[in-house]
Design goal:
212 residues; alpha+beta; 6-stranded antiparallel β-sheet; 4 helices; 11% strand; elongated
Amino acid sequence: MPLRGFTLAEVLITLGIIGVVAALAIPTLISNNNKRIVETRLAKFYSTINQAIELSEVENGAKEKWDASSSFEHPCDWVDKYLKDYLKTVEIKRDDTSCILNYPDGSLFTTGDTTHFTFYPQAKDYGNGILGKTSFLFYFHPKTNDTYGVDNNLNYAAKKGIEPYKYRWDGTENMLRNDSGYGCRADGGQVYCTALIQYHGWKIPDDYPFKF
């Protein structure tokens, strides 16, 4: 029997179908992969930074009694004293106002006052961060005997390590999503986005306001 191959038209049609399917599928695959990177690195940062604080307490005493940033000329001096020896970083840099720490996995965090910490799952996004998408806000204030206590709705941070920023949070998911100033929504402040992801076990909800 004579052998019959594919015609040029059939090959082109098949390639066209493959191209259409790939064009539809690849962006979703990339987005899902980026989403997993954010989830994984957020959870890892939260774990490792708080482990570092616990290790530092053995040598430097209870974190509630650590010196304030105002006692140091630069935030990196505070980092050098309390955190550097307990974190696996590839580089620590200082600019005029901030300390910038790069991790081996390609992420980065920075602090300008040793109280607010901004984490970037992708270091390349530093300097062009979008809260809740490329940058995520954490807060460190373990002290309880000053003005940053219960009266200012920061008790969630008292005697704790670094936590997602939850200023005046009422404990509900609704507020994390819909608060007019800080809510994790497209037209909100996105400040609570880190806390919302933590609320879901460091998983980004399907209806999260940003795509990755």
